[in-house]
Amino acid sequence: MTEMRAKARTGPGESPLAERFALFAECLLTGVWIAVAALPLVTWPAAFAAGARHLGRRLAHERGGLREFTADFRAALRRGWLVGLAGWAALAVVWVDVRAVRAGLPGGPLAGAVGVSALIAAAVAGLRAAARWHPGASWRALLAGAGRRTVLDPAGSFLLVGGLAVVVCSAWFSAPLGVAVLGAVAAATVAVEERYARR
């Protein structure tokens, strides 16, 4: 049964290995699209949502390319830029918090640890919300649901934290490598959300 499904997914004359390499290449390309669309900084949720939808179509063997990615990005951007702005505001608050820790204020280490943990949780919830986005969806509802899933599915959330760490480390080593890894994180987020939905 598993072999029959694999053959049905790969199409005529295409091996499962070739299909996996094609998906890997699609992840790299999607990472580039996400990075370019996220250049204005506040557009990162919309860019990630469009990338996740593109990879979802690819996994479902539906047609889709740059045109569909761009249409999804524009639709997600209508309210998604507010989510991006809120994310940068949260980062600024945590940065001030960390500065207070370094200044030696009483209770600083605890406040700093709480602030950094909350920022990481918010980033994971943002990724999970973007992976569930679809045209017409409310970002507020998506974020509320993603926040619950972040807590109720710690294994998936830790996987995404690891993915974010890989992006940061890759970008630190080589910026183009970090861009390519973004697509893999988008694919991982789609997989984590699918896994949670099937539970």
From TrEMBL:
Keyword terms, alphabetized: Membrane, Transmembrane, Transmembrane helix
Positions of transmembrane segments: 32-55, 76-96, 108-130, 151-173
Designated name of the protein: DUF624 domain-containing protein
